Structures are given as structure tokens and as C-alpha cells.
């Protein structure tokens, strides 16, 4: 009778479900009784709440795992020969222990596989795979540790395409692709002050179609934009793309119109078209009057946007890549484009590193872990090394403040979460521990280590966690718990069977920024499974603020779900506002040119009306003023 009553109430509730702005509803919130309240954040780093005792326990190389069905299943990596728990292996086929091995196999085939095994074991591969006795590893992270061990060999067998070997311009033009605009990337240089740079904006650039012995310039217009890159066409070529060329707008050779006049640099029409007009000055006045160009301090703003507050030798707390449940101390080794190469403090040869953006939610100030109750690996180094210093807390991304005093997340609540170890999947997950300041420890149902060493930390406002039913509503494949046999997976059934409740929808972050991304846009994306790599990528799906990123040339199983706004994902590391004289105020709109005859006739403006080869090789004054 009680079950019948529950079903009746459930049916009645289903009829009243209403979707909100997140596309979600609260229909799953009361499928069972409430579970225990959140635990204290004062728990020590080694104390982890035990999982239910009825789960079978499996041991592999000293590491303990639990699975609902009690079947471990072993697999052998076809790339490096490593043997381990099958669920620890990468992709649906479970042929490889890691994404790096999978990609190496795809790129280098059998030869690379033999080389990798020789590097690891010192022996040729045999028919009977040899179990590698490595240090205990978290199941899903065994792959990454193995990758670290073979990094030197992989660098030889899988060389990345160099910047000189890939041309964004050719790639965009030959396939008629559309690149994501700079304004989509608030965390990138110039992302917040790019302004209205668009097609038809005029700039002054070096003239490469000239035989003069000195560097000369000419005016060009933007034909097409692809991120920072612009396809330029010299003035006077009209619809002729013969000398079109790609150039980085933020480069040192691009200037606003008028820069040559102010700097005493010569303007010389390209040799190919110098015969088209007898009065180039009048031509320019007609073409440029009322046109748009770059702000006069554009280069200064580019330089300022590439100044980063993080500096080498700063100490931070960062996630332990081998045990996601805890953090470690690391030192900033280098800063490139806002990306930090962090070296774990205990790494003697400084090769144990981790890449992330300076606004990443994975890094924090020293003392953060203790302040919120997060597990932390104490360093064997008792005192700071010379020159190392703690990063000021105000430099880190700020998370949104939350009120945990009222209705809040509780241990045991169910939700959907992006698996940080397989970013192509959104999985059934459980809140395992509630920390301070809105942080949560989450585990993926069905494949958790018994000691909780593969739990991971997300903030309550993180765009990587979702209410129950999010995938179903948005037609995304939800990854069910490993060993769960009642397929297709139904949340109502699962909640009833496990005696769990769903986390209330209203507790999740529903903000959707106007990010500007569109399906099909091209961009450069960090491979978050191997964050040292930046790859050519495409946006293939957009769900609210969530982007599905496909790495061009690779299978869909390597796709990754990411947030559309890194800045909004991690707050913003805003500094105190500069003086008004230094702000980019007024430059969101392009500078409109009002060229008149007096500008070009000015004494400081050097203009060459087409030079012959004889003139260019002589010793006379090449900069001839054009009489009106």
C-alpha cells in the first residue's frame, strides 16, 4: 500500500513538473527519504567515509577498487603492454590504458608500440603480456602515470605539428570554415578589449610587393577574420585576391592608419598596381575618408593584456594529478599566454609537472585545502626553497559566494557530472562529502576506489555538474554506473533502487552567459587530458553554456565537454581598476578616419608615388611628395 501511495504521489508530481530556464525540473527530488547530513570539513587527509559494505572489493597492484557486480575484468594495453583493471582503461573499446597510448597507436601503429614496450620493460613484446609492477595507482589514473613513464619515447615517436607546419589561414580558406571570434575568449589576451575589429577595417602594414631597399608600408583592408588572424588585401587591388595574405592583428607590423605619418615612415603602393592610378594621394583620401581603423593605442593594449600577475617561483596548491581527491604544493615554472606550467614541489628533476590556466579552478592559494577541509598531501620539503614565495590569494579566481545555511547539497545526493578523467562523458555521480565555501567532493557511481582516492572536487556553481535529468532533456548520452544492467538507464528506477534522492535543481548554477560560440566554429583548444597540448578543434554541440569540443583529425571518442567561459567558470581575477587615462575606454568602437588633403600633404607624411627600379637603386630622396 505504501509503495502504491508513493507511485500515486509520484505520478501526480510528474504532471506538475515545469521546466525552468535551465531546461530542468524538480521531478526527481523526492523519490526517497532524505539521506544523512553533510559531514564535518575538519576530517583529516587520510580519513575517508567508507563505502557501503555490501560492495565487493577488488585489489590490483596494491590498489583497492569496488564494483557493483564484483567483476574486475582485466585488459592489456595494445600500445605499451600494461595490464590492469579493464575499467581503468581508456575509451569504450578498452584497448589502451590511456588517451596518449591510444593516440600514439593511431599515429605510429605497430612500430611505436614496439618502441614503447622496449622503453618500459627493456624487452621486446611477447605473446604473453607482462604485468608491470608499478607503484599503486588509482584505476583511471594508471594511464596517466604510464604516460609519464614513457614521455621521452613518446616525444620521439609522436611529434606534434609545429606552428610553422600548420597554417590557420590555409585551413580556414581551403575549407570555408568560420573561426570563433576573439571576444568569445574572455580569459585570453585582448578578449575583453577586442572592440569592433571586423571586416573592412583599414590598417598600415609592410609592403612586400616592392623592390625598395628600405622597409616601406601600404594600407590594407581586412577581408576576413579568424581569431587573431586577419586576411588582408592591399588598397587598390579591389576584388583581386592575388596578393592577399594572412597576418596576426596583434603583431608588431600592423598599425592604425596615420601611424606612418606620425612615425615618418613611407607609404608606397605595391609594384603590381602602381600603374593603376596617377594620383595615389587622392585615391587614398577617397577610400579612407569615413573608414575605420585600429585605436591609436592598440599595440599598447595588446602589450598590457599579455602581462600576467603570476610569476615564476610562486607557490600554489594544485590538484594531485595521480590522486584527484587531494591537492599538493607546486611552483610556477613558466607563464605562457596565461597558462601556467606548474612543477610539483617534491620533483627533484622538475619533470613532474602540470599545465593549467591561471584562472583554472584547479589551483588555489597556499592554505586553501585546510580552510575548506579538502585532503592535502603534505610536502616532504620542510621549508621553502630559496626564491620561492606564496602566491598572493587575491590573484586566484574568485568563486561565487553561496549560502549553505538553508537547503543545501548533502552527502549521498545524486547528480550528473562530467567525468574529469574522461571528459567526453557525463556520468551518474554522487556527492560524497560537503566541504566549506560551497565545495563538493564527488564520485562517479560504479567505479570508485574504496578509499575515495578518485573523488574529485567541484564547486557548487561549477558548470560541470548538472541536475538529474539534464542529459535526457538535452539529448546527451548519460553514462550509467559500471555494471548497471537495467538499460536503458532510468533515473526514477535507479533512485528507488539505491534509496537515494536527487540534488534539488535550484541549487545548480543556471547562468548562461552570452558567449557567442556557434556550432561549427574553429578554435584552438587545450586537450585537458594532456594539457601540455593545444589542438585545432571544432565546436560540435552547444548546450546552454556547455560546449562539445572535437579535435580535428581524431575520433569522436576523444571529444571533450567544456564550459564556454573559462572566466565565468572560475570567477574572474579582476585587479583594481587602473586610472582612467590607462583604461580602454572608448575603444570598443573603432576609430573612424576623417582623412583630408591636409593630412597627406603634411610635412611629416612621406609618400612615394611609385618608384621605378632605377629610382629605388639610386641615392636620391625616394620619398617624393605628390603635388595636388
Automatic annotation (TrEMBL):
- Record GO terms (molecular function): chromatin binding; histone binding; zinc ion binding
Cellular component annotations (GO), alphabetically ordered: nucleus
Q: Where are the transmembrane segments?
A: none
Q: Which part of the chain is the FCS-type domain? A: 68-103
Q: What is this protein called?
A: MBT domain-containing protein 1 isoform X9
Q: Keywords assigned by UniProt?
A: Chromatin regulator, Metal-binding, Nucleus, Repeat, Transcription, Transcription regulation, Zinc, Zinc-finger
Biological process per Gene Ontology, one example term: chromatin organization
- Report the superkingdom from the record: Eukaryota
Amino acid at each position: 500500500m505504501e509503495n502504491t501511495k508513493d507511485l500515486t504521489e509520484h505520478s501526480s508530481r510528474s504532471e506538475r513538473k515545469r521546466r525552468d530556464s535551465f531546461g530542468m525540473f524538480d521531478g526527481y527530488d523526492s523519490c526517497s527519504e532524505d539521506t544523512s547530513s553533510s559531514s564535518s570539513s575538519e576530517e583529516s587527509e587520510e580519513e575517508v567515509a567508507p563505502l557501503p559494505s555490501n560492495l565487493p572489493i577488488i585489489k590490483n597492484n596494491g590498489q583497492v577498487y569496488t564494483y557493483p557486480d564484483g567483476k574486475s575484468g582485466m585488459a592489456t594495453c595494445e600500445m605499451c603492454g600494461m595490464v590492469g583493471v579493464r575499467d581503468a582503461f581508456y575509451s569504450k573499446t578498452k584497448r589502451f590504458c590511456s588517451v596518449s597510448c591510444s593516440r600514439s597507436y593511431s599515429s605510429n601503429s605497430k612500430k611505436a608500440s614496439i618502441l614503447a614496450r622496449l622503453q618500459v620493460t627493456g624487452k621486446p613484446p611477447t605473446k604473453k603480456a607482462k604485468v608491470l609492477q608499478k607503484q599503486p595507482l588509482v584505476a583511471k589514473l594508471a594511464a596517466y602515470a604510464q604516460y609519464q613513464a614513457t614521455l621521452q619515447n613518446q616525444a620521439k615517436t609522436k611529434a606534434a605539428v609545429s606552428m610553422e607546419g600548420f597554417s590557420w589561414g590555409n585551413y580556414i580558406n581551403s575549407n570555408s570554415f568560420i573561426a570563433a571570434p576573439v571576444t568569445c575568449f574572455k580569459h585570453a589576451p585582448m578578449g575583453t578589449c577586442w572592440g569592433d575589429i571586423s571586416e573592412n577595417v583599414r590598417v598600415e602594414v609592410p609592403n612586400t610587393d616592392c623592390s625598395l631597399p628600405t622597409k616601406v608600408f601600404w594600407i590594407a583592408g581586412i577581408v576576413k577574420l579568424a581569431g587573431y588572424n586577419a586576411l588582408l588585401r592591399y588598397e587598390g587591388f579591389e576584388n583581386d585576391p592575388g596578393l592577399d595574405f594572412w597576418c596576426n592583428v596583434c603583431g608588431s607590423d600592423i598599425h592604425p592608419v596615420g601611424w606612418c605619418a606620425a612615425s615618418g615612415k613611407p607609404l608606397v603602393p605595391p609594384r603590381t598596381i602602381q600603374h593603376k592610378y596617377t594620383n595615389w594621394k587622392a585615391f587614398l583620401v577617397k577610400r579612407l575618408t569615413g573608414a575605420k581603423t585600429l585605436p591609436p593605442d592598440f599595440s599598447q593594449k595588446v602589450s598590457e593584456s599579455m602581462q600576467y600577475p603570476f610569476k615564476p617561483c610562486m607557490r600554489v596548491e594544485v590538484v594531485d594529478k595521480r590522486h584527484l581527491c587531494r591537492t599538493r604544493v607546486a611552483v610556477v615554472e613558466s607563464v605562457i599566454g596565461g597558462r601556467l606550467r606548474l612543477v610539483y614541489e617534491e620533483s627533484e628533476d622538475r619533470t613532474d609537472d602540470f599545465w593549467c590556466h591561471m584562472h583554472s579552478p584547479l589551483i588555489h592559494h597556499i592554505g586553501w585545502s585546510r580552510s575548506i577541509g579538502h585532503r592535502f598531501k603534505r610536502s616532504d620539503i620542510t621549508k621553502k626553497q630559496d626564491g620561492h614565495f606564496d602566491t598572493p590569494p587575491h590573484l586566484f579566481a574568485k568563486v561565487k559566494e553561496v549560502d549553505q545555511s538553508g537547503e543545501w547539497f548533502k552527502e549521498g545526493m545524486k547528480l550528473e557530472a562530467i567525468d574529469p578523467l574522461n571528459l567526453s562523458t557525463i556520468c551518474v555521480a554522487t556527492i560524497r562529502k560537503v566541504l566549506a565555501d560551497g565545495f563538493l567532493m564527488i564520485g562517479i557511481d560504479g567505479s570508485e576506489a574504496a578509499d575515495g582516492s578518485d573523488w574529485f572536487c567541484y564547486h557548487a556553481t561549477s558548470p560541470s555538474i548538472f541536475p538529474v535529468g539534464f542529459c535526457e532533456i538535452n539529448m546527451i548520452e548519460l553514462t550509467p554506473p559500471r555494471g548497471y544492467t537495467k538499460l536503458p538507464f532510468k533515473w526514477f528506477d535507479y533512485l528507488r533502487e539505491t534509496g537515494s534522492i536527487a540534488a534539488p535543481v535550484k541549487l545548480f548554477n543556471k547562468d548562461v552567459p552570452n558567449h557567442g560560440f556557434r556550432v561549427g566554429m574553429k578554435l584552438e583548444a587545450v586537450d585537458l587530458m594532456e594539457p601540455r597540448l593545444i589542438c585545432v578543434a571544432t565546436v560540435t554541440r552547444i548546450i546552454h553554456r556547455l560546449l562539445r569540443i572535437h579535435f580535428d583529425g581524431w575520433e569522436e571518442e576523444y571529444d571533450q565537454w567544456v564550459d564556454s567561459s573559462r572566466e565565468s567558470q572560475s570567477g574572474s581575477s579582476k585587479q583594481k581598476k587602473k586610472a582612467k587615462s590607462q583604461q580602454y575606454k572608448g575603444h570598443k568602437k573603432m576609430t573612424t578616419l576623417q582623412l583630408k588633403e591636409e593630412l597627406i600633404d603634411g610635412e611629416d607624411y612621406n609618400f612615394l608615388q611609385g618608384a621605378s627600379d632605377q629610382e629605388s637603386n639610386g641615392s636620391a630622396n625616394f620619398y617624393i611628395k605628390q603635388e595636388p
